[in-house]
């Protein structure tokens, strides 16, 4: 999943509230990734795990309003168009999916959400999967949630106009990376159902041309959010998705405020992962990372019932660390997001230039401007240490601050002009001049281009006219299969909605991806890491920068705040303390 630049990337993490260890000097040179934090998401085999209600949160009480502080608006709230972390987090409160992860610790459990279980592998070969929809689930208007609605949600995800979301299920159903060459969704006379998906009463059945044993994990993605055909407004669905979860949208004013109130038709007895403790949840848009931190340190008024979505900025980390009261209200820990430069291979076609860029990067300086080890740790792999089978390597050893001699040698007297695009948010405004300087000292000329942060990832998915840009990725489940094929299979490149934002195409890599996709997850784990090493060493389509560390704050009246092991900050257990 992508990270909204300027928003906290909240990956597979362990809750570490109130961590008050000694401060470390911010040199930006701590290059040790946290390899101890491999997370597990087991698939439940006990039908009781998929029943509701979710386990009660100790001490939780109902009532009150929770305020979520966020700098920039969401790119999309249409679930089938959502593949950015901040939207995915909030949507969990008003949408449901076929399966879902429990919001708990390092060992998450995948359970049936809309479905009665995480899925039935009909023939034991991972090619035919069956899901039965629970009874008694209702939308915000009291109408029943049906298997046909889930199928319509999947069908609409085939539309080229709604292509920004995940593509796993579409590609698996068709057996093609370009999944909508023939079927383009249920619009303009298209069939109601996509190829190889059938519906009978309360049951959906997936018929895959090849084996896909990871479907239970993929079924937790927003592709499977139910959308009644009668409520589908196409590209306008962004404005007011129809609620299937414990909350519904009362009002949404772009760039200002999103207000959620309870969906009175939601039945906790059908939901094994969510709660509806607060009366209202308000997302207040516009506060920078500095503003969010200062407000939550002060802990006044409505900020006592607020949470930040921005990391504590570098300038305020020492102050926060010296404040015991604030540290007791902090959420810290490693997460599953890796930030990297994607190099546009459609524009920078010479691998030698891309390798020179890899040597020129000053990871230590980037980590320092972010806030040191509290905020980030230098990364030389795109796969996160939280992914099963992760192996550390450094394809272009350059130390903490780059190897200018090697970069200049590869350039051999050339001075390429590069255009660097970045999301126009507070943290990126501080970071962009540093990026420009690090490449110019190696002999490049760098032009900066600020892009609207609320459409940044969408812009990167449309063959942008920029040479490189920073983005982040967290595996949708703790496997290389949820990173390498998504970001580097060149056969998936299309006019828009691309996740391969390096626009990297290499048939030999695609062939290895096909081979690894057929292996059991345990066997494939280290091979995904080996494939990444081969790809980066040979072609350098990306430059890994840092593994993000979460450092967030909340108010003194907030209870149930946690960082879950499923790749996201969880709002599912929030309540207002009395």
UniProtKB/TrEMBL annotation:
Query: Would you name any one GO CC term?
Result: periplasmic space
Annotated GO biological process: peptide transport
Name of the protein this chain belongs to: ABC transporter
Domain of life of the organism encoding this protein? Bacteria
Q: Which GO terms describe its molecular function?
A: peptide transmembrane transporter activity
Signal peptide segment: 1-22
Q: From the record, what ranges are coiled-coil?
A: none
Return the Pfam families for the record.
SBP_bac_5
Annotated segments matching region Disordered: 42-63
- Taking every annotated instance into account, which residue ranges of this chain make up the domain Solute-binding protein family? 109-488
- Sorted UniProt keywords: Signal
């Amino acid at each position: 999943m992508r990270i909204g630049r300027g928003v906290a990337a909240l990956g597979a993490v362990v809750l570490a509230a109130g961590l008050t260890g000694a401060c470390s000097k911010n040199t930006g040179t701590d290059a040790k990734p946290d390899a101890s934090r491999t997370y597990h998401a087991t698939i439940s085999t006990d039908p009781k795990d998929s029943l509701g209600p979710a386990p009660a949160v100790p001490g939780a009480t109902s009532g009150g309003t929770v305020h979520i502080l966020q700098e920039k608006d969401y790119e999309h709230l249409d679930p089938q168009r959502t593949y950015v972390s901040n939207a995915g987090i909030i949507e969990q409160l008003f949408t449901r999916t076929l399966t879902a992860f429990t919001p708990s610790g390092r060992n998450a459990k995948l359970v049936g959400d809309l479905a009665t279980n995480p899925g039935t592998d009909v023939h034991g070969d991972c090619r035919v999967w069956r899901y039965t929809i629970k009874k008694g689930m209702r939308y915000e208007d009291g109408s029943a949630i049906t298997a046909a609605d889930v199928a319509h949600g999947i069908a609409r995800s085939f539309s080229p106009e709604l292509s920004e979301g995940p593509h796993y299920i579409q590609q698996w159903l068709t057996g093609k990376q370009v999944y909508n060459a023939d079927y383009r969704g249920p619009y303009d006379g298209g069939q109601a159902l996509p190829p190889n998906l059938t519906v009978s009463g309360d049951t959906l059945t997936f018929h895959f041309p090849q084996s896909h044993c990871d479907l239970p994990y993929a079924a937790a993605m927003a592709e499977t959010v139910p959308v009644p055909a009668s409520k589908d407004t196409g590209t306008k669905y962004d404005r007011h998705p129809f609620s299937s979860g414990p909350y519904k949208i009362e009002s949404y004013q772009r760039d200002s405020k999103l207000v959620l109130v309870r969906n009175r038709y939601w039945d906790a007895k059908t939901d094994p992962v969510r709660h509806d403790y607060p009366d209202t949840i308000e997302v207040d848009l516009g506060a920078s990372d500095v503003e969010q931190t200062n407000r939550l340190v002060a802990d006044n008024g409505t900020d006592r019932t607020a949470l930040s979505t921005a990391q504590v900025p570098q300038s305020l980390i020492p102050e926060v660390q010296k404040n015991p009261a604030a540290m007791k209200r902090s959420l810290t820990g490693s997460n599953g997001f890796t930030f990297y430069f994607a190099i546009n291979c459609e524009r920078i076609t010479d691998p030698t230039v891309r390798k020179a860029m890899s040597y020129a990067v000053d990871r230590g300086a980037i980590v320092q401007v972010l806030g040191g080890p509290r905020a980030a740790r230098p990364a030389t792999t795109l796969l996160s240490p939280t992914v099963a089978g992760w192996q550390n390597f450094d394809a272009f050893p350059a130390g903490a601050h780059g190897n200018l001699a090697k970069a200049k040698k590869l350039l051999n007297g050339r001075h390429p002009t590069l255009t660097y695009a970045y999301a126009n948010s507070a943290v990126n405004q501080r970071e962009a001049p540093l990026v420009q300087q690090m490449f110019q000292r190696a002999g490049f000329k760098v032009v900066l281009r600020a892009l609207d942060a609320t459409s940044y990832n969408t812009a990167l998915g449309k063959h942008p006219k920029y040479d490189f840009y920073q983005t982040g990725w967290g595996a949708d489940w703790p496997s290389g299969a949820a990173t390498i094929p998504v970001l580097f299979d060149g056969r998936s490149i299309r006019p828009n909605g691309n996740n391969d934002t390096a626009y990297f195409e290499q048939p030999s890599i695609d062939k290895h991806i096909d081979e690894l996709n057929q292996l059991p997850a345990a066997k494939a784990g280290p091979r995904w890491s080996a494939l990444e090493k081969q790809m980066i060493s040979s072609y350098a389509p990306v430059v890994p920068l840092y593994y993000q560390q979460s450092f967030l704050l909340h108010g003194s009246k907030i209870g149930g705040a946690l960082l879950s092991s499923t790749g996201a900050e969880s709002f599912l257990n929030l309540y207002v303390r009395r």
